[in-house]
Amino acid sequence: MTLKQAEDIIIRMLKPFFAYVRKRCATPEDAEDLTQEIALRLLRMLPTRDDLQDGESYCWTVAHNMLSNYYRKKAKCGYGIIPDNISDGFDLYLSYEQQETEKRLQLEIAYLSKMQRQVVILFYYENMKQQAIADRLNIPLSMVKWHLSEAKSDLKRRMDTMRDNSELRFNPIHFDTIGCNGSLGTTGPNSNFLRSALSQNIVYAVRRDALGINEIADALGVSPVYVESEVDFLYDNGFLIKSGKGVVSNCLISEPNQALIQLHDDMYLRAAELIAPELFDALNAHVTLGKASIISTQDDMNFAMWSLVPYVAALSDDKAISKAVSFEEAATLRPDGGHNICVCMVTDSDVTPPLYQNSMKNIFNLCWSDHDGYRLWLLDTEWSLQRIGDLDFTVERDCDLLKNFFRGDTLSKDELVHLISRGYLKHEQLPAGDRDLLQILRIKGREANDLLLGLGEAVKEKHRNELDALKAPYVKATLENTPPHLKKAQSFCLQYLFHSDGWFILHCLKNLVNSGKLKLPTEQQRKALSAVVITAEQ
């Protein structure tokens, strides 16, 4: 829309605008000021809109919204209770006590039910007739009258009651880590859902007991209007579940004390001391690089061990896993296709956090098998580039392209560029039929894979009794501190201690780096680091 067209519309509508707001403003002066503000707002906005089919309808929407802002700024609803009829004028010079009372009243309106809140605002703040409200909300006139009567009684009672606020109002928590045990959906990691201080504190406030909207608002010291929409969002995506008349958290929230953190650190440090060096030596002794071997990768054993150690540590000794609780029993299927358990940690400021906690924020692993038996396994760590955030959306294609690559099929330029961008292939131009440019580690066939995992199983079996003794007190203490409705999810996670367990893998890698067995990767290797493809054929 041109500036000239915008000016023509505004000039034509100035009188209707003034008539509209004059009936609803406290004074003629307020009406004149508001009409001028509406005109200036439209003069700025209309020339930027090229998609308007009905310019006048858009103008009336802007006018209505600005009138609503006027009400919020200047409306006075009385003191103590809402009056039967709002005053025709507004006292702009309220005493401090009156201002505080008005603020309190506006706060208490936010605690009404959604329908009551709508009726009250339309009747008292927008001066709508009861029949017009009934038409707007598509409810009977009798329901409008009933909601107004109930709201007045409820507000009078609330104004005479002091609200109790929990410590969260003055000392909100912040999740140190937000993890995912399972698969991501199209929205990405769980941190994208628990995206704000409000969402995190809502989930934390109901970690043990179910609370209603108003109770959560009281605990957080936040208007129920904001809590209500965020609770709906978290509930719709499976991070809250219904319980009675309220909601309760569906996230495993760990808030360990110093004793549990010490138990945690001692357990993982000792487990890594037992497993990591022996696993490294066993793999180093049995693995050779090159075309004819069971392993194919860059001619760099250190690079290969960055993939082999975490892969074998995570997936070996599968028979020792209890599996008393299945993944389907414990995990939540989310609307975006994610199927996972959300795991969070809160560490009190007076408590020393777990060892390597900052490093743990970078740990994420993905395992994918396609229908032809090809498996792609990746681990993101502080030493690799972060790759997995958007990989869930391309991993199926990646598996298909890698399968075609290993079968000797001719790939298009775009397909080769995709594999190179993912770090699977080197940047060099691929000669026809040359399969030697693979950049990630390849395990040739299932027999080779079983042999490698068998090495890990033997190392773990050698230390079985000590591993079981290490985790027993930690499992007991963790379950004792888990709310009853989340014990199944917690039990599932604890089954995988010292297996596909991010803390265990991290401690193993730290042990090997600190001891000098693993050398730090080059910058070029980071994109392909800790990535394994298991092919069906040799």
Percent helix range: 40-55%
End-to-end CA span? 66 Å
Structural class: alpha+beta
Instruction: Please report the total strand number as a whole number.
Output: 11
**Broad shape:** elongated
CA radius of gyration: 31 Å
Largest sheet: 5 strands, mixed
Q: Based on the structure, what is the oligomeric state of the protein chains?
A: single chain
Round the mean pLDDT to the nearest integer and report it: 82
Measured by DSSP, the beta-strand proportion falls in: 5-15%
Low-pLDDT segments, ≥5 res: 75-97
Number of helices: 20
Task: Give, in spatial order, the strands making up the sheet with the most strands.
Answer: 5-10-11-9-8
Task: Compile the SSE list and pairings.
Elements: H1 3-22, H2 28-45, H3 55-74, H4 96-110, H5 114-125, H6 130-137, H7 141-159, E1 177-183, H8 197-205, H9 213-220, H10 224-236, E2 240-243, E3 246-249, E4 252-254, H11 258-286, E5 295-296, H12 301-315, H13 327-330, E6 332-333, E7 339-345, H14 357-360, E8 364-369, E9 375-380, H15 395-406, H16 413-421, E10 441-444, H17 446-462, H18 464-480, H19 487-494, H20 502-515, E11 531-535
Parallel strand pairs: 4-7, 10-11
Antiparallel strand pairs: 1-7, 2-3, 5-10, 6-7, 8-9, 9-11
Helix pairs in contact: 1-2, 1-3, 2-3, 4-7, 5-7, 6-7, 8-10, 9-10, 11-12, 11-17, 11-18, 11-20, 12-20
